[in-house]
C-alpha cells in the first residue's frame, strides 16, 4: 500500500495523486515525443533513399575499395629504394611533388582564413545585437553573414574557377567567403556575451561607437576570436583539400586525378599525407591557441 494512503490524511493523498498524475503526463509526453522523432527519422530515411538493404549491399564494396588502395608493402624490402617494389619509397615515389601540393593547400587555407576572419571581424560588431548601431544594420549584417556561410565552398569555387580560371586563387576566394560568414556569426555571438559595463563607461565618457568596440569590447572577446580563427584554419585545411576537385588548386586536384584514373596506391599515399598534415596542424594550433589565450588572459 502506498505510504501516502496509509496516513489517511486528505492533503497528503491529494498531493500524492497530483504527483502521480504529473508523472504520468510527463511519461506520455516523452513517449509522444519519441514516437514523433521516430516517424520523422523513418520519413527522412525514406525520402533520402537511405534504405537498410541498400546500405547492407554497399558495405562490402566499401571494404573492397579500401583493400584496393592499400599499398603492397613487403617487410623484406620495406626500407629499400624507390626502384624496389614493396618498399615505402616505391609507394611514395612522388613525395616531393605531393609535399609541394600540400604546402600549397596549407598556404591557401592560411590566406583564406586570414582574409575571411578580417572580413568577419569588421561585420561582427554591427551584427551583435547588444551594441549594433540600429536594428536595420543588425538585420542587414546578420543576413549578409548568413548568405555567405549558406553557400558551400565548392559552389563558390565553381563560380570563381569560371571567373578567374583554374588555380589556387579561386580556392582562396571561395574558402575566404565561407569563412567570413561562419566566423562572423561566432564573433558576433562572443560579442553579445561580453560585459557591457566597459562599453557604457566608454560611451558615457564621450567615446564613439568605434572607440567603444576597440577599447571596451575587443579586449574581452579577443581570446574567443583567436580560438575561433585557429579552429577555422583547421577546417579550411580540409576544405582546401576538397575544392581542388573542381580545379581550385591544392592537393585536391591531384587527388581527383588519381581517383579518376584508379591509381589505387597513389590514392592511399595522398590521403595519408593529408591526414598527417591535418593532425600536425591540429596539434600545432592547439598549442598556439592555449599559449595565446594564456597570454591574453594574463595581460587582462
TrEMBL record:
It is found in: Cell membrane. It comes from the Bacteria. Keywords: Cell membrane, Membrane, Transmembrane, Transmembrane helix, Transport. It is a multi-pass membrane protein. Pfam families: BPD_transp_1. The chain crosses the membrane at residues 30-48, 100-125, 154-177, 267-285. InterPro entries: MetI-like, MetI-like_sf, PhnE/PtxC. Residues 102-285 form the ABC transmembrane type-1 domain. Belongs to the binding-protein-dependent transport system permease family. This is Phosphonate ABC transporter, permease protein PhnE. It comes from Roseomonas fluvialis. The gene is phoE.
Amino acid at each position: 500500500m502506498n505510504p501516502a494512503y496509509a496516513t489517511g490524511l486528505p492533503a497528503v493523498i491529494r498531493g500524492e495523486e497530483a504527483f502521480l498524475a504529473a508523472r504520468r503526463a510527463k511519461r506520455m509526453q516523452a513517449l509522444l515525443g519519441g514516437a514523433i522523432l521516430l516517424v520523422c527519422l523513418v520519413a527522412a530515411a525514406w525520402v533520402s533513399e537511405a534504405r537498410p538493404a541498400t546500405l547492407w549491399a554497399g558495405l562490402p564494396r566499401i571494404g573492397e575499395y579500401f583493400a584496393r588502395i592499400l599499398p603492397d608493402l613487403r617487410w623484406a624490402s620495406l626500407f629499400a629504394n624507390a626502384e624496389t617494389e614493396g618498399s615505402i619509397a616505391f609507394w611514395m615515389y612522388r613525395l616531393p611533388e605531393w609535399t609541394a601540393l600540400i604546402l600549397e593547400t596549407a598556404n591557401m587555407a592560411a590566406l583564406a582564413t586570414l582574409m575571411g576572419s578580417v572580413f568577419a571581424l569588421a561585420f561582427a560588431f554591427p551584427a551583435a545585437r547588444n551594441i549594433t548601431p540600429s536594428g536595420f544594420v543588425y538585420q542587414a549584417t546578420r543576413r549578409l553573414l548568413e548568405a555567405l556561410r549558406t553557400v558551400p565552398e565548392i559552389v563558390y569555387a565553381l563560380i570563381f574557377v569560371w571567373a578567374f580560371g583554374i588555380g589556387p586563387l579561386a580556392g582562396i576566394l571561395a574558402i575566404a567567403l565561407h569563412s567570413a560568414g561562419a566566423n562572423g556569426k561566432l564573433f558576433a555571438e562572443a560579442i553579445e556575451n561580453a560585459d557591457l559595463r566597459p562599453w557604457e563607461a566608454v560611451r558615457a565618457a564621450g567615446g564613439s561607437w568605434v572607440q567603444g568596440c576597440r577599447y571596451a569590447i575587443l579586449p574581452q572577446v579577443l581570446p574567443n576570436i583567436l580560438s575561433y580563427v585557429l579552429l577555422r584554419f583547421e577546417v579550411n585545411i580540409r576544405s582546401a583539400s576538397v575544392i581542388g576537385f573542381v580545379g581550385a588548386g591544392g592537393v585536391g586536384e591531384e587527388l581527383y586525378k588519381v581517383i579518376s584514373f584508379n591509381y589505387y596506391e597513389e590514392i592511399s599515399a595522398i590521403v595519408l599525407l593529408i591526414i598527417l598534415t591535418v593532425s600536425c596542424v591540429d596539434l600545432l594550433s592547439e598549442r598556439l591557441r592555449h599559449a595565446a589565450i594564456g597570454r591574453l588572459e594574463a595581460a587582462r
